[in-house]
UniProtKB/TrEMBL annotation:
InterPro entries: Band_7 (IPR001107), Band_7/SPFH_dom_sf (IPR036013). It comes from Pyrodinium bahamense. This is Band 7 domain-containing protein. Residues 421-631 form the Band domain. The lineage of its organism: Eukaryota, Sar, Alveolata, Dinophyceae, Gonyaulacales. Pfam families: Band_7.
């Protein structure tokens, strides 16, 4: 089963039996019949794992130390108390009787001269003795004091808070002297004092070591490693060597063959035993093995993708990843989990995401084609198409994956297989065994090696610009202009055969050939025509005014250019000839319908000729302007006369109507007054006179007309009338 392995037991000094497994990991999430058939797995070998064998802090909890010399404290009390004195008496070597006897004899002999001091003092003070004798007695008395001085100098006083080590000169035996005065052990020996707070007190064969809490003492006894647990240790061992304390928090403590390794949580330790790689799990390990070696950079994080030591490999595959590997030259995939591998021929290829398009391990291939694309593969040279949206598993040495392409591409070429998508508004071109074949709009699969795509031709209208058309007209005027033609392909097979050679894109090549042919046709047409033909269209032809309008309105119609004259212009003439000859030729020979053509920006190449023609055009324009202005003045004068005539006729008609109305009114009034009584006549006369006076007129009253004539003709009338010059 994928993930299973072999187990065995291994026991080292200080190490509990541990399980050794080929691989310990959860079953892969993609474990299925299809995947197992694709990759059944491989033999992972045996990887040795050490479980921690020390619970808590080293030295605080019981542990199987095996044959390792791990010593607990042997001093339970304080320095100077009965327990300590008993331990010192038990540990140190007591003096032999001979050593005690000769030291006591020395003390006794040193005290004998004290007995003769008094007689010698009496003799030295006796006046009856001669001066030389008295001096001699004094010298002898002083000599008797020398042994006492020697004893006084040998007396050792050990102060409180100190401890003294004494080494006897006979055999090097060492004893401990506590606070107090000491004489016999000090004779014939060397001493050394230490403060009782010192961590290491060593002299001669005795050693008193204090290992503080949180530390471990490291030493050797006769070359064998010794570990001292926290507390005070007193030993009488001449072969004991103390290396010093080390913190129990150190990750690696080594004392000879003894190793104390602390692997932090979230890490693993790497080491070798007899050259075989092993892995230490998180915790504290106590190992006493001469062949145990911790490797450089021995601690690794458990979540590292690859942990390697010798042939041991620890591969961690996170969720959503996959790891291709090579084992003995064969490719495999490691799925999600933690994998322990022990293989000499193992090659790690890195991590890849499960969403990656392609992952390869040797001859095994995993393909996941993204949506909207199509995968391209080759199996023994034969093209394969891989659909999107599913995982494709291939185990073949002859399989090759060429990547994926956008499924919307119009042409997908893969080996001898071609997929052609012809869009609406296009003609698809292909060649089957060298014969042209048209493809209708849609998706076509060309699975024959001799059936190849040939490009696309647009079926819609296209406008092609023809720049820098040059030519010499029949009247020797060199012209240069731009043009544009609008065309449409109606017979794609004829257009491809006649206008393309297959050297580049079909549509571009077709357009380029049409442009060149149109450019050549325009140059030929210009050379066969006269530029001055266009001036015929600039003449104005006077057209007779309509009689009805002249009779009613009297206006003169200004002539305009007729369509026939416009058609005779140079551009229109070239256009007509081009459309008649070129379009028919293109339609019949090449299957292309020329819809329209236009000429733009005509330029005369000869500068002097262009200047002369421009001057003539300016003069012609001035003449036309003067003619138009004269016609405008004439039209304005005619219109004004007509308006004045109409106004005069209107006024005459109005005056006639007014006069006739006044005559009728006067006649009616006269008839009415003639038939009226004299009083009424007088009243009407008075009213008329008042009306005249109110308007500033002079009123002359007479009896009748004869009287009025006499009045106006006499002297009085002359005075009233206006004076004549």
């Amino acid at each position: 089963k994928f993930g299973s392995g072999r187990f065995r037991l291994l026991h080292l000094h200080g190490q509990a039996p541990i399980a050794v497994a080929a691989m310990v990991c959860e079953a892969p999430s993609a474990e299925s019949l299809e995947w197992l058939a694709f990759d059944p797995g491989f033999d992972h070998g045996s990887v040795t794992k050490y479980a921690p064998n020390v619970q808590g802090t080293f030295g605080e909890q019981p542990c199987d130390y095996g044959k390792t010399d791990v010593r607990e404290r042997n001093v339970t009390g304080q320095v100077g108390d009965p327990q300590f004195n008993q331990l010192v008496a038990k540990t140190q070597t007591a003096m032999t009787p001979l050593q005690l006897c000769w030291r006591a004899a020395v003390v006794g002999l040193a005290l004998v001269p004290i007995v003769g001091l008094k007689p010698l003092a009496t003799l030295a003070a006796d006046p009856s003795q001669s001066w030389p004798s008295r001096v001699l007695f004094a010298l002898v008395m002083i000599a008797c004091l020398v042994p006492l001085r020697f004893l006084a100098k040998q007396v050792l006083m050990v102060k409180q808070g100190e401890i003294c080590f004494v080494q006897l000169m006979e055999d090097g035996t060492t004893q401990i002297l506590l606070a107090g005065i000491h004489l016999l052990p000090c004779l014939g020996s060397t001493t050394k004092s230490f403060p009782v707070t010192a961590d290491e007190m060593r002299y001669g064969t005795l050693v008193l070591i204090r290992v503080r809490s949180g530390f471990i003492g490291l030493g050797t006894d006769n070359g064998k490693p010794v570990l001292l647990l926290p507390g005070m240790h007193l030993y009488n061992a001449p072969n004991f060597e103390y290396s010093g304390p080390t913190s129990v928090n150190d990750n690696l403590i080594k004392n000879g063959t003894v190793n104390i390794i602390r692997v932090q949580p979230g890490q693993v330790g790497l080491a070798t035993v007899n050259g075989t790689p092993i892995m230490l799990e998180s915790g504290v390990h106590f190992i006493d093995e001469a062949s145990f070696v911790m490797e450089r950079g021995c601690f690794k994080k458990v979540d590292e993708a690859l942990i390697q030591l010798g042939q041991m490999q620890i591969v961690v595959v996170p969720r959503g990843k996959i790891a291709p590997v090579l084992v003995n030259g064969e490719g495999h995939f490691l799925l999600e989990g933690r994998h322990f591998v022990s293989q000499g021929r193992f090659s790690y290829q890195g991590l890849q995401s499960l969403s990656d398009e392609y992952a390869c391990a040797g001859t095994r291939h995993r393909i996941l084609v993204p949506s909207g694309r199509i995968g391209l593969g080759l199996e023994a040279g034969e093209p394969l198409l891989l659909e999107a949206g599913q995982v494709h598993l291939r185990n073949s040495a002859l399989f090759q994956y060429k990547g994926s392409v956008d499924i919307t591409q119009q042409v997908i070429s893969h080996g001898s297989l071609n997929i052609v998508t012809v869009r609406d508004g296009q003609f698809g071109i292909s060649y089957k065994d060298g014969v042209i074949k048209l493809l209708d709009p849609g998706r076509h699969t060309l699975d024959s090696a001799t059936h190849v795509p040939g490009g696309f031709i647009s079926a819609g209208q296209q406008t092609l610009r023809i720049s820098e058309v040059t030519g010499m007209s029949s009247d020797n005027v060199e012209l240069r202009f731009d043009a544009a033609i609008c065309l449409r392909v109606v017979d794609p097979q004829k257009a491809v055969v006649m206008l393309t050679q297959g050297k580049r894109d079909r549509m571009e090549e077709l357009q380029a050939n049409v442009q060149e042919r149109a450019k050549l046709a325009l140059s030929i047409i210009i050379g066969n025509n006269n530029l001055n033909r266009k001036h015929g269209a600039t003449l104005l032809v006077e057209q007779p005014a309509r009689e009805e309008e002249q009779q009613e309105e009297g206006f003169v119609e200004v002539p305009e250019k007729s369509k026939e004259d416009e058609a005779n212009s140079f551009r229109q003439y070239i256009h007509d000839i081009f459309m008649h000859s070129f379009s028919v030729s293109m339609l019949n020979e090449c299957g292309i319908q020329v819809i329209d053509m236009s000429i733009e920006d005509v330029v005369i190449v000869n500068t002097e000729l262009a200047t002369a023609m421009a001057s003539a055009a300016v003069a012609n324009s001035s003449l036309e302007k003067s003619t138009i202005e004269a016609e405008i003045v004439q039209v304005k004068a005619t219109a004004e006369s007509k308006v004045a005539l109409i106004e005069a006729r209107g006024k005459a008609a109005a005056m006639e109507i007014t006069s006739k109305a006044d005559a009728d009114r006067i006649k009616t009034v006269s008839d009415a007054l003639h038939s009226a009584c004299p009083s009424a006549q007088q009243m009407e006369l008075i009213r008329a006179s008042g009306c005249a006076v109110s308007q500033g007129s002079t009123v002359m009253l007479a009896q009748d007309m004869s009287a009025l004539a006499t009045l106006l003709g006499g002297a009085q009338g002359a005075a009233l009338g206006p004076k004549l010059k």
